Amino acid sequence: MPSEPLVAEHALEFPGGYTRTTGPVIGRFLTELRDGRIVGVRTAEGRVLVPPLEYEPETGEPVTGDYVEVGPAGTVMSWAWVESPRKGHPLDRPFAWALIKLDGADTALVHAVGADAAKAMRPGLRVRPRWKPEADRVGHITDISCFVPEVTAMVAHIRMEYRVRPGRSLSRFLEGVRDGVFLAGRCTHCDKVYVPFRTSCPECGSAISEEVELPDTGTVTTFAINNLPDPRAPQVPFVSAYILLDGADVPMIALVGDVPAHEVRQGMRVKAVWAPPEERTLSMANIRWFAPTGEPDVEL
Amino acid sequence: MREVAVIAFAQTEHTDHDEGLTDFELIHPVIQEVKERSGLSRFGFTCSGSCDYLAGAPFSFVSALDALGAWPPISESHVEMDAAWALYEAWVRLQHGDVDTALVYGFGKSSMGDLRAIMTLQLDPYYLAPLGLDQVSFAALQANAYGAGRAELDEIVRRSRADGRNNPRALDLDDPSGEEFEVEPLRPYDVAPITDGAAAIVLAAGDLARELAERPAWITGIAHRIEPHYLGMRDLTRSPSAEAAGRAAGVGKGPVDVAELHAQFSHEELILREALELPAETVVNPSGGPLAANPVMATGLIRIGEAASRILDGGAGRTVAHATSGPCLQHNLVTVLEA
């Protein structure tokens, strides 16, 4: 009988951590970090290295003893987005690694950027450090918890409240809808039928006095598929359409339902689906939507 | 310079899982194989490359010496790097002129631990390692800085995996697919697979090489160059150290039939092609390269072995091998081999 393979768990660890001396240059940087400042060191050529190194990487010359405060703001040069942080990463939510050129520095610092999503990241993004509380800072690169984008936008909350009345034309139309009919107005001058009902002709400007009752059937002239939810719509995606009621000269906007969105088409014949009479009010909600009748399409 | 050639190369059938072999058991067959191919059982010098952090044990390479037959005592050295650098040390040793043969080997089992986290430990311990910056994350920073096109990267992975499927030593990996990111902009398939494996090479100098091999792969150029470690001090859109090593090794002094590049991430191939100024007709990584098998610490040596094999088997006249070490192609070794 084959035996299970022999496997042992094994950990490599320095209990309590491994102590490293910093030397004067890195030590100065970490000391300044503990105090909430970021410094670079000036090279003999005048470049400012951040984080400071003991030697100029290009020439091998020792750096000067001139420390320069930089940042705290900086510019993202390159970034990589971590959707699933790993154990040991500085943040436990999605974040970006970034090369950040702090203001006044000639080299870039590697650190984490706490951004909401990858699409918030771009070269040129301006960021600032988010420091750990002073009492928690010990002189460690993680004394900066992460960098965060500079503020470039803010949200303004606006809400005004009104009482709105529908006006005479719409009131009249809604009375019809409450009673299960579509009321239109006919301009005797232009011989055009407008629905919803209106009291003046938009074409010639004359007053409309003639009411016409239209049937609740019509033809889709154009439509849109909506992918954002709307409290009035049966589901997402839903279709809003221009429907030319039979006998009308202008189309009316309404929902189309009882049909998959991708099957709706221009010229489709539809009929209103009404709420039961006992639920009807002075509201367009009386018409749930228009549904296909199954008749042949109409040439528009 | 003393003429030195690769006369034998062997590698394991690499696996994507732990076969339950110790390092010694892993390397023993490839040592036996290069001994047979070269006809040598003792070597003037022996050098290996491995990383104790892969096994999580100090001096783990010492126990691997059991695979060699190291008694009576042999002249031996080790680099805590990819074994391509062990080959460099052996080449330098052969330049002294007092020994004529060298055995070089490298091995690694990435399956035992968390390679991404282990590679964090190679980073500077003050500024980078404490952030927990892992291997795929720093590679992704370079990929984004370079700005490689997605279609180009996909094609590199597709080609590498197809070539790998034709290489019995490499892993069998499907064509790349999937829209998710490992660390954006890198997808999981842009990252070399976790691999266990080993490889060995025998070098011989001058007439002895001609005697032992029908068609020795002569090392006509070999050089390595390094850049600053800290990523923010470097231009990550290119690899100046690979450029310098390529020039010093003389890559451009003749045609390049085949180039084996130590690209552990798809975008690194693009950066290296530019750095080494490889002509369009050069065949890159016909073995599948590291994207088809990445036995860490042997992967760079395998590049030299594969490039040499193309000459040993008569398929090519002049080849280039590249090996790398450190984050984001920090340190690069380029070898030119000729028939």
Automatic annotation (TrEMBL), chain B:
Q: Which InterPro entries match?
A: Thiolase-like
Cited Gene3D superfamilies:
3.40.47.10
One function term, GO molecular function aspect: acyltransferase activity
Which named protein is this? Answer: Lipid-transfer protein
